[in-house]
Amino acid sequence: MTAMAALCTMLPATAYAGFYGGDALYESCTADRDAKDYFERSYECVGYIAGAVDAFNTTREANGLKSCIPGDVTLNDLRRTTVDYLGKNPRDRAANSASSQVFAAIRKAWPCKAAPAKKKLAARKKR
């Protein structure tokens, strides 16, 4: 029992569900160009964002919905949008998963249009 308690205290506690946190993504995406691991960090950033966006779009497609991101948006646009969002939301970034932060950034930049409301038939009064 005490061994289990000791093991639990060694595990990192996170407030979000996911393998990668918003702070970690921001750190990768804002790596110093002069750092020796810049290219690895930069690829990690872009790869993560691309994977997250692909997963969101796949989920939408599986539910019969189209992507809300315009077709002319580039991977660099997605990266810039995500980094900007992460920079402006440090509290959310620290408390949430990276994928939820990518999703929030993308939804803010390119919100899905609301589905047209179905016309309600007016109830006719019988005389």
Automatic annotation (TrEMBL):
Residues 1-17 form the signal peptide. InterPro entries: Rap1a (IPR041238). Keywords: Signal. The keyword Signal applies. Residues 22-112 form the Rap1a immunity protein domain. It holds the Pfam family Rap1a. The keyword Signal applies. This is Rap1a immunity protein domain-containing protein. It comes from Sphingobium amiense.
